[in-house]
Structure formats: C-alpha cells, structure tokens
C-alpha cells in the first residue's frame, strides 16, 4: 500500500488543491507564502489523525475537543475570509491510497466488502470535531461508508507516519525518537517474560498503593463522613506506557552528550537514522510515509548532502514528501515528482526549465533542454566524443540532436567540483569523462568526498597498459598522424612516441627530440587537430584494445537516460 494522492481544501491559504499525486519521493517547491508548507501540514494533520489519534475518536462519529485535532485550531486554520460566511465550515483532506494485488483480498477479509481501484478516505475537521469516512461515489459506496472504522483500521495497520518539521529543535528530534522507541517497545509487551515482570512490579506496588489509599481515606473521613472507601490504582496500560516514556538519546563524538546539545544537522540525521532503522525493522510489509519540511533548513552544506543520501536511501522502500527551496532535493530523474506550488495552486512540473524558473535558477542556453550533461575536460574532447557517440549509438545520437544529451567542458580537470556543483544547482543530471591521470583522479576524489559525484557517474579515459592516460591515448595514431606531421614537420613513428608515458608527455618528448618549441598553445592546437580527425573517422578512431572504455561510457549514458525515461513513464502510468 502507498499514499497515491492528496486533496486539500479550506485549510489556511489553500482554498482547493485537487488530487496532488504523490510518488515514492515527492518534492513540493515554490516561492514563500504560496502554500507548499500548508499542503504538507495538511498531509501531516490528516495522516496524524488516521495513524496516531485512533484512540481519541470513534471513526464515523464526531469526537468533541477544544481544537478538534492535535495541531488544528479552527479560528487559525480554517480560511479567515470564509469564517463569517461558513461558521460551521470544515477543512477537508482526502487521502487516496493504492493497494497491492494481495491487499484487495485482505481488504475483503477485514472489511467484508470488495473494492477496485484506489481507496480514498476523507477527513473533515471543524469546530465540532473530526470525521473520517470512505470517500467514493457509485455502487456500494453507502455500505462502505458505514464501514469507515474498519477501513481506517485497514489503512493505519499498514502505514506508519513520521513528520520532521522545519524548525528542528532538540525537543522535536527527541519527540520523534521517543515516539519511535515507544512503538519499537510495544513489540515486547505480549512477551510472557515481560508480562511476568509487570505482574511482579504490580505485586510490589500494591501494598504501597493500599497503604496510601487507607491514609487518604482516614484523612477524608474526618471532613467527609459519607466517604466509605478510597482506592488508588495504577492501570496496567498506564504502567506499561510509563516504561516507554522518558527516553534520552546520547551521542558520543568524543564525549557522551545528550542530543539536545548537538547541532541541527546531527539532530536531523539522528531523527532520520532512527526512522530508517524503524522502517527496516517494520514487519508485515508495513510502509512509512515521511513528511519533511525544508530539510536544508539551518544545515551546513555537508550536512545537507548527508541528509540527502539518507532521504534517497529511505525513498527506496518508503514514501518521502518534502518541501524545499534547494535544487539539490529536486527529483531530476522523474520531473513530474516535483510539485510546483504557486499562486496557491499545485501542479506537477512539466520540465526542468519550469522548475528552474520557480526556484530562480539559471542555466546556459545549451543546457536548457538537457536531460543529461556529459562533462569532459576540454572543448576538443567534446568534438571527438560527440562524433564517436553518434557513430556508435543511434539512441544517443537522437538524444544529442534533440538536446536531451548535452556536453560541457571544464577547461581544465581541476575545475570538476566547481563545474558539477553548478550543474547540480541548475538541476541537471550529469556524467563525467576525464583523463585517467593524477589531475583527473584527484578531481574525482575531491568531488566524491564533497558529495558531488558517485562512482556510477564517472568514467575515466583509462588506456590499456598505461599507468596514466588521456583521452588521446585511446585514439589510433594513424587517424591523426599525417596531419600533425605535415603541419609541424615531425615524425610520430620514433620510439619517443611509443613509451609508457601519457599522450601529451610523449608528444612533448617527440617535439623536444626534433628541436621543436613546445608550449600550451601548441598542445592545444594539436589536441584540436586530433579531435577533428577523430570526428571525420569516428568508427575507426579508437584503438582496438581501448574500445571497451568507449563502449562502457556509451552504455553508462544510455542506461542512465533510459532509467530517467522509465522513471518518468512509471510516474505517468501511475498517475
């Protein structure tokens, strides 16, 4: 089971947000004060009522309390401009769930009714209380509405909910921890050893409570002669709950310190870490829905990257819904998983450019329509690789032609971290192909340590039999030999050019051996000449022994682009 969609009406600034589809990971983005936080809080309100407040109301009936539901105050949360006109108006939130095949049979067994399609539950909150009901028109809907208590039980027994607010105080982290610990400890309360221990505690407490009862009775009897007996009891449920309260998290990073004295980043990661642990231990296929407000709030950039990794890992098994201003949290693979909230309306993003506009992010002209950017070291690398890729892959050739695969150069390997941080902020997916030399390796290591690059996002120009190599080492000498020899009057057949050094160092040795000048401008010119010759003969350009390097790069690009296409198609079909 998963939460498929949410509709929110008459809640704070949201007059009506219809059927916002939720994926495995959903990001609500948009300007401040346009409603994204209110949509998330509406979700929090409804899911809390459904999964946490079960003991506070009889489903299908109203329960009466001052604020109707925890976190809801009618005077503040029902739209102020409607309060005079609709003094008994209600906030309505519809949660729509999808079921797995086996759950349709389970639904029939538990509710004694059959359904097809999605399972919608409407939660109404007003001055007079809360109602939870089955929300679907058509044949059998009336009888199903009468079974709302069982339906809500069915949902809440399969889904857990957690909320991490934007203002993450130590207490909020502690509350999340306490709640999760409480639920984990519930699992041992039916164990015989635990029950026996409780009985022993009850036996030890009983004489003390009886003595106190007698003492109070004797005191009261002096003033209230009609009092016949006083009895002090500690209900078993309260006793059991007492053993689950008062948890404290201590973190040892050199000194054992309470979590409340740690920074926001540690608290956020601790809360998510415990949620992840609890979700991994969840039995019976129970899923978590986790709502996170502005995960980047008050965090150091490194902590944001760590938090993103934890969130991504959680989203593999559970649902994550977040609000954010940070491009890092945008779903680059399935664009429509990003919900744009603007002018108090919510809609799935249609393209990356739409997201960039709402976040105030700029991208260069050649990257505006790009689904993937291949980052290389120099402009000459773009010339040669574009030709080779187009020559070997029809799929990537079309991607290049329509702009979904773009190229960008570093103009030097040392700029890798800076370049891909710009691409990430411009909401681009990227792949890296750099020289397999000291500069390339160090740049890769630095980018990886900074959380900017993963192993699956890079290929190195690793020529066969060389400790260090450049992209030119992958190319057959005969492709470019004549053009260079004719222009510079050198001989590339001499032993100096057949050594183990990387290409540019061997070329320098050749120029030195011929008494020719050598500098950066000459090297740049020759690299351009090589790239042009490769572009004229792309299918014959690569050394036989190095073809696997090029094939591996092409396969990585194809796989990642196809995965992105599939992710978007899955979202479309699911919607």
UniProtKB/TrEMBL annotation:
Q: Which residues form a coiled coil?
A: none
Q: Which InterPro entries match?
A: AAA_GajA/Old/RecF-like, Bact_Antivir_Def_Nuclease, P-loop_NTPase
Its protein name is Endonuclease GajA/Old nuclease/RecF-like AAA domain-containing protein
* Molecular function as annotated in GO: ATP binding; ATP hydrolysis activity
Q: Start and end of every Endonuclease GajA/Old nuclease/RecF-like AAA domain? A: 1-330
Q: A Pfam family matched by this chain, by name? A: AAA_15
